Amino acid sequence: MNRVYESGAAKKRKAKEEQKKIDKLPKITGFLKQDDITSKNDETPKGTADLQENVIQNESVDLNPSEQSELSVATQVLINHRTEEEAALRSTSEKIESYSTDIALWGEINEKLRLYWLQKNPGLCSNKDKDFSKSARIYQEGDKQKVRTLNKSLFQLKLQNNESRSRARETGSLENALTIQQKNEKNYWIQVLRRITDTIKFLASRGLAFRGENERFGSSQNGNYLGILELLSEYDPFLKEHINTYGNKGHGVTSYLSANICEEFIGLMGEKVLACIISELKKAKYYSFSVDSTPDIAHLDQLTFTVRYVTDQGPIERFLMFVPIEGHNAEYLTEVVVKFFKDNDIDINDCRGQSYDNASNMSGRYSGLQTRIREINKDKFDEFLEKAKSFTDICESESTSEPRNRRRSVKLTRFEGESEHTQFTGDEKLKIEIFYPIIDSLCSNLKTRKTAYETVNDNFKFFTALPNMTYEGIKECCEKLARKYDQEISAENLISECLHYKHYLRDTRKNEELFIPDLYLQLKKEFLTSTFPNIEISLRIFLTLMITNCAGERSFSRLKLIKSDHRSTMSQSRLNHLSLMSIESDLLKSIDFDELISNFAAKKSRKKVF
After folding, report:
1. Considering just the CA atoms, what is the radius of gyration of the chain in Å?
2. How many CB atoms lie within 10 A of CB 446?
3. Residues with Cβ < 8 Å from 575, sequence gap 6 or more?
4. Band (267; pLDDT cuts 50, 70, 90)
5. E strands present in 312-464
6. CA distance 290 to 267
7. Which SUPFAM superfamilies match (predicted)?
8. What are the C-alpha distances in Å from 69 to residues 61, 66, 78, 114, 468?
9. Distance between CA 514 and CA 464 in Å, rounded?
10. Residue 64's pLDDT band (cuts 50, 70, 90)
11. Cα 582 to Cα 205: distance, rounded to the nearest angstrom
């Protein structure tokens, strides 16, 4: 079929009909409301007013020769006025600020100025609501002339519901729109991560397993982690919608519900708890530690670290971590302990006590771990070196040159023989070979512990008897304690403080039995630390000393619970993080993880699949 082309007359007739339809449409100026100009300074002559009306309407007009002449004169006046303003602007451009609120003084409009006013409200512009008729320009388009100028309506957009809003609002730029979108996405994932954090805290504090046989929602074998999230979603519409949208989508879809995100959060939360403990320890300054070892389910020896320090609420013991070891000799254990404190930026010179079991490699008198740590920190423990020197002096004073007598050996004759071996009954053999050695060892250890307790008691017990002590007694006890801790305590200042503290206790603790923990808490509660600094340090050192090594034994119970038969291949870092959150569950509940969640959501930006 051949194409039919319209003739030129038909096209002209069709164009005239369309133009008539357009002319019948209402003008856009009918929807705009013009403000009355009341200021005398803003009054313009008739010709200029006509120009303004024509500019506002932005329509093309046909002008006869007389009107053209009048318009040319008015336009020439405007151009001359504009030229004068430009000259004045050039003369004062050096005195004008870069971001003036006067539009006429903006000068060259660059990208920096545009970004500045996009972030500001146009209401700050001093001339936004003024008349801009003097900015009129006449443009020639063929045989027609158009007059355009700046109008205040250009600062606003007219919406369909007749609402006006600033076209230069801060949210109007593309960059800000993307920023708002990113912020909304971040807030969405923060809400998801908060629920994940609470679930991890619940499972870790109870030492429960996280994973199951699969990682699918709706499966009864998906483990405790996904199971608890499913339970929460039954009462949490947000989480339920999130699981329905992103759950079971597989790789490539961001959901933050995968095992990788869970493991990453376990590590971050464990590090946060450890950092909080170390921060408290450094703030307390003085501490004591306890180490002990036991094999785990994988037959790997784990060395547990427990520290004791004093906060404003009193003494507290915290578990730090398990360290795998490959040997049990004292030299190797010393290297492990020193390296542990160095890696965690803990000053070993602030250590004031140690606690071990009775193994010779731990508490051996001559070459055990305890003795080696004392050699590193020789000035901070008891008077080991002073006693050694005193023993040396005694040996030198008692040395003589008396002749040594050789013992005479006894030989059996022909008619003599060895006596028969004594025959023991079962009860006698039990007593001699088992019961008596145990009792001897027990008595020896009790005597050693008694000596240690008596030494500590002799150094600090005078604080509980201050109200009834004389000046000579206070001076003697203070000097003795200051000699032991010469770098922390000043003997002269301690004596002066004890004399004042004596009268303070008489007034506040009349006829009351005094205990060092109560005295320390009283100093903190009544803000007397700055008044009695040396007394506070002395009491803090006493409360820092380890009483038992039970904290290490309790950590082994958690070790057996967390690293069980079903989780024997657990990594060392995961074991430490879960053990720390389980043992220190009270601290875990008190820590605010909002900052961690926010940083995680900001750094772990993912691409969403739409």
Report:
1. 45
2. 10
3. 322, 559, 562, 563
4. very high
5. 314-324, 351-355
6. 25
7. Ribonuclease H-like (SSF53098)
8. 14, 5, 14, 39, 116
9. 5
10. low
11. 4
